[in-house]
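Notebook B, p. 112. Complex prediction, attempt 2.
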Amino acid sequence: MTIHLSRREEKPSNASGIDKWVPSACALCYATCSIRAHNVDGVVIKIEGNPDSVVGKGKLCGKGVSGLMGHYDPNRLTRPLRRTNPRKGIGVDPGWKEISWEEALTEIAETLKRVRAEDPRKLVVQRTTTVTASRIPFHSFAAGFGTPNIATAGGGLHCGNGAHEISGIMHASWSVVPDFAYCNYAIYFGASKGHSAGHASCSNMGLAADARARGMKMVVVDPMCNFASAKASEWVPLRVGTDGPLALAMCNVIVNELGRIDEPYLQSKTNGPYLIGPDKRYVRDPGSGEPLVWDCGCNEARPYTKVPSASMALLGEYRVDGVACHPAFQLLKDHLQSFSPEAAEAITTVPAANIRRLATEFATEARIGSTIVIDGVNVPYRPVAAIAFRGSQGHMNSTYNFLGIDLLNQLVGAADVAGGCLGFNPACNGFPGTGRLKYRPKPGRDGLMVSGTWMGYHYPYPMAEPRAPQNIGLQDLFVMGMNSPFLASSDQEEVWTRFGLPYRPEVLLNFGANMLMSMGTKETVAAALQRYKLIVSFDLFLNETSDFVDIVLPDCDYLQSMDSRSTWPFIFGHPAGMGEWCWGIRQPADEPRGEQRRFADVLLDLADRVGILPDVHAAMNASLNLEAPYRLLPDRRYSWDEICDAELKNNFGEAHGLGWFKKNGVITWPKTPDEPYWRATTEARVPIYWEFMVDIHEKINKITQQCGYKAPDEYYDPLPLFNPCLSHECKTPGFDFYAFYYRDTLHSNSYTTENPWLDEAARLDPYSYTIVVNRSVGEARGLKSGDLIRVETEVGRSVEGRICLSEAIHPEGLGIAGLAGHWHAGMPVAKGKGVFFNELLELDFAHASPQNLNLDLCAKVKVTRIGEAP
Amino acid sequence: MRLGMVIDLKRCIACYGCQLSCKAEHGTPPGVFFARVLKREEGRYPTVRQLFLPVLCNHCDDAPCVEVCPTEASHHAPHGVVDIDHDKCVGCRACMMACPYSNRYFHDERQFYFPESGPTLYEAARSERHPERVVMKCNFCAERRADGKLPACVANCAAGARYFGDLHDPNSEVSRLIKDRGGFTLHPEAGTGPAVYYLAP
């Protein structure tokens, strides 16, 4: 049975005479920049940035301006589809049959009712990372249903189990950036912030360009010289996945060779003075249980709350009740000795002399002790920042790599102060009219910082208590994990059996994620998907994952959707530093085509049919923090627009409901210096010594004792170590490249390769669709640019593509732009373009970090020429 | 008044915003980019950098394309902008041969990005107005300028790398940038007097 998906589109009737600019939000990536869409006679003819908003500041990247070609793609789904072929497999025709929404929702609701009655945990809800505002309806649906299984496909594994968790613990934020307005020396480790990447993408492009034009030195550590590294004052190429040891060697130079640290900061803003006993734990006051510090004023150990920070010892050995103990900072200082620049050179290939020079420059430029007046407020000034993202922490050593890098900031006091490394807006004094949206980091357990708002399942600190797994991803056992490979690992069943997962997932409710391409090698994901009894997917196109889906629901895209917010939480899209707060909505600039429906309304309909609407409303009340009179009533049937209206009025007052926002697009108010530079006036400390790891390790081991598993010690030390990825252990002759992928500026995840403008630009770009190898290395093997090569792992997984010989890559590196290489006919523009890197990645327990479940994203590969350049 | 553009290569990060916002503004057919971004590596590993070079029609003072045009289709519009009168263009492509910058395109036949399903609604609204068998290129967004707007590539540049203004006014931002930072043009040896200047990376 074939179905004709391509249809010549018709203009909406009664549309002539329309000429309007609709303020809304982009969704080509998770930055969700504010846009204005121009609708003339019912056709959207232009998308521009919305200059009224700081989220994008009126500009868009190449992807954002190209949104129309995805929107009007004739391959968009327009009818619900049901498979007629029960056999599921890669390339096996599902035999799609068009069905009505009524048929689709009836079948889905019946299955969901049965599953919920049996065990609601059998439902897995999965979302793409790009439409971040979808978090509210999907998480609320999952919470109302009663399942803990909420996933974002490759998100986390491929972006930030370490980056997000540690940014949360150390900066109360999802991610970190240099304070572009004041930073003079930024060192990037595998990140491209400000260079068409990530949160606040377009705003940061302007800020980073201003900073570079102003003379900010930008050092970029990266195996490849593209994007940020291409604009760097200095590119530091290194062996793939070894950023942690480089950062730790720099820390060593700063602490042990230069001795140039910010003592008052370490005393007052970190747990550096806390005394640590031989059991690696805090030495606590027997009465209050508070960690003790050594009070240099009276030469005795006292609870940290009783001692002025300037009197707290950072160095030395002390005895408390006969037990030898050291301030945490002393232990860090000693620990760092094992990371000499010479040792780091052997691991990273970065010359020791350069490591010393970079560390010296960083410590010198920090101007420890200085302050600056901003808007009349005197704040600490440390114009240096060390930042990191996917490239450096997308490894099994994810946590320690990121922590080692952030220690650079902590040592010189450059965390959330002017010029330093900033979290993305973790403190907000609230909308002046209502005082709502107010949050601020605060001290929590043992005086360590708890973030004021958070995006994930659990606040980063204090960490959740490990428990016997009830979540298919095991994040509730390995509590530092955010997203998990066990959603689809090859040893999924073995892992579940071993760790005692008390049920098995049966239904997958998917929103826009193309799981077959977003995690690892396709056969592994395919096998996991085959085990589901029902897969329902909201999609714009049929794609590789559709081969395993039972019911496909035709979604509206971002130009046809409504949302009270462009993102979640609203701080996500904001640039850090001074400027404005800004809340924008997403609203339709165009009508749905055919039977397309907005996912949020479909979920509400489904919740009603399943009988969980009161629970979903309760979850929305909680996650949107709705207060009377805007709280949703349990039994009333709301449209999504009504819920959006309630959230907006709840936050911004009765006068600023959906109607106001539809007309005005965004609401703004100014930031004050105590918001971006909250650290100096916030009592909370951050851990330079992760004492809580000892406890977590013990608890995990206690739970897993019965199944004979012990979490390896080297992943649970309170001080950062280097645990190389499994791929680094491969010593087989011939497998001498470290393959890695990077995020191309022209593409987001896997779906923009279907956009013909972006595809065309990518085909003209020398790197987007090719496999990049160092020129000298390639030429020594007789390879020429344009040759067709096979890239193969030790276990025989392989991809093929055209090679691009380049001076701009480490000799051991092999770089591929991630998430291209589609093979499904449902996305004909994308099909056959670029290289599917994830095919090289093993998805199993052995390749996941036993600390935070981050996947080994390097692959040791062999290169073979299989065809000449055309 | 002579309209010109300055592109600051220090600020440009090759996000392709110019190339694609231009396409979105004009609905150019497949293969046609009035604005493009070129990439080149300079140096040898590890002392290497990438150069990003956004290019577009240079709106030359002494424009070879205008000179060779047999029908006066290629002409100097007001303020030094080089434009093509499509009613006069016979598609001989002499101008394409003459242009030292390869920034002109011949629109040989109607093409759409999804060939099997014909023009999308967007293409029907924006692309079908481009006549066939003529040469097409950048005109510094004549329609936008008529509405008092900056050219699309300038208005949209997120890195703030593009400036637009009067090259004849010594106090204009473009003139000052060219003077202060040693603005240069491409292929000066061709003697064409481009109106697009670059600032060193």
